[in-house]
Amino acid sequence: MQFIKLGNTNEKLSKLGIGTWKLGSDKDKAIKIIKETLSNGINLVDTAQMYQNEEIVGEAIQGENVFLATKVSPHNFHERDILRSCSESLQKLKIKNIDLYQLHWPNPSVKISETLKAMEKLVDEGKIRYIGVSNFSISELEEAMSSMKKYEIVSNQIEYSVLTRDIGDSLSEFCRKNKISIIAYSPLGSGKLFEEKYKEMFSLLHEIGSKYDKTPTQVALNWLLQKENLCAIPKFSSREHLLENLDSLDWKLKQNDIKTIDDFGQSKKPLSSMLNPVTKRMAPLWSNLMTRNEKNRINNSEDKKEKD
């Protein structure tokens, strides 16, 4: 397994971590795949308050050697709400402290100084070990960093794939210079890579992969994992996905193939990428709504399973 150093710490995170968004409608299956993934040398597990699956993740990681990351939703960024949210997450995860506690999205309606004051208090109390952010731009990172009094921002979790490259060289370089690790979520475009409208990109990855006896998925992940200061958290929804994703490691695309992918013009950007500015402005509203919807989805799925 390959590892990266987390920010300006001595922690080592596996280049591939476990993303758990929508991993929870089948509890037994989710626990089984998380445990099997960890047994293959992966140590990073990422979840979130919004995902409504922290209890499942907590059960899956018991007795495992794991670096656990979770996120607090933007509608809970006031100090008292962050302190309450952290206590709730600790209880659901069945752990004494959270390795990496992240701000899920920026929330311009709450002063970042208030939010980070609460986060630093959690470090002082031993409830979290490191502070991270998610979906922060350079200017948002600079504001967050200037608000820190005792500790550092160690990571920025962002959407990054062959389809979504909004990070750009400037944000990537900023994070590298400031020792902020990048955690790439949706590294396969949330499955959009396999949709008809992205067939040109898929064909290119298939063509390149044929030279290495690798699948388009493995090529897409290898392209991403060769980026400096970065790890990725794809979803491992089955044993087949696990084995395929693991085989994106321990080999390297040649530089000319990397350049071909870099230079490939993707005219049809994912909708999520284009809506990013709106998403940020509306973060408190939609995060609250999404939390409720995800909870209802899981409850409905469990009720259906019991009836069956």
Can you offer a commentary on this structure?
The protein has 308 residues and is an alpha/beta fold. It has a single domain (3-297), classed as TIM Barrel (Alpha-Beta Barrel), CATH 3.20.20. 46% of the residues lie in helices and 15% in strands. It has 13 helices and 10 strands. The chain has helices spanning 27-38, 54-61, 79-93, 112-124, 138-147, 168-177, 199-210, 216-225, 239-246, 255-263, 271-274, 276-281, 283-307; strands at residues 3-5, 12-14, 18-19, 44-46, 67-72, 98-103, 128-134, 153-159, 181-185, 230-233. The strands form 2 sheets. Strands 3-4-5-6-7-8-9-10 form an 8-stranded parallel sheet. Strand 5 (67-72), helix 3 and strand 6 form a beta-alpha-beta unit. It is globular and about 55 Å long.
Question: Could you write a compact summary of the structure shown?
Answer:
By secondary structure, the protein is of the alpha/beta class. 46% of the residues lie in helices and 15% in strands.
Order of helices and strands: EEEHEHEHEHEHEHEHHEHHHHH
Number of helices: 13
Q: How is the biggest beta sheet arranged?
A: 8 strands, parallel
Name the average pLDDT.
87
* CATH topology descriptor: TIM Barrel
Q: What is the CATH domain class?
A: Alpha Beta
Backbone CA Rg: 19 Å
Architecture, CATH level 2? Alpha-Beta Barrel
**Order of strands side by side in the largest beta sheet?**
3-4-5-6-7-8-9-10
User: What is the end-to-end distance?
Assistant: 40 Å
Determine the strand fraction and express it as a percent band. Answer: 5-15%
**Helical fraction:** 40-55%
Low-confidence stretches: none
**Structural class by SSE content:** alpha/beta
Shape from CA axes?
globular
CATH homologous superfamily label: NADP-dependent oxidoreductase domain
Number of DSSP strand runs:
10
The count of domains is 1
